[in-house]
Design goal:
Shape: rod-shaped
Strand content: under 5%
Largest sheet: none
Order of helices and strands: HH
Low-confidence stretches: none
Distance between the termini: 110 Å
Structural class: mainly alpha
Length: 84
């Protein structure tokens, strides 16, 4: 009659991570590893979906100016006179 709702992998991972490390059993460690692998694979599949844009910095598309002295005054040559 009342079937238990399946726990989402993210929720289950949070439950397992809330257990202190020294109190976790080998089975719990194995489950954590499996969930992390599963969730990572899901994240990769979502980011490569068509139409999904990656978070790139706004300056990534703009070419950097060459010159290296941006915002500085150009170097002035000082001509020294020969001594009298």
């Amino acid at each position: 009659m009342n079937e238990p709702q399946p726990i989402s992998p993210r929720h289950r991972l949070q439950e397992l991570l809330s257990i202190p490390e020294r109190q976790r059993t080998d089975a719990q460690w194995d489950e954590i590893n499996e969930l992390e692998i599963t969730l990572t694979a899901v994240n990769r599949a979502e980011t490569h979906a068509p139409g999904v844009r990656r978070n790139a910095p706004a300056s990534a598309d703009k070419p950097k100016p060459s010159g290296g002295t941006q915002g500085k005054k150009p170097f002035k040559r000082i001509h020294k006179r020969p001594p009298k």
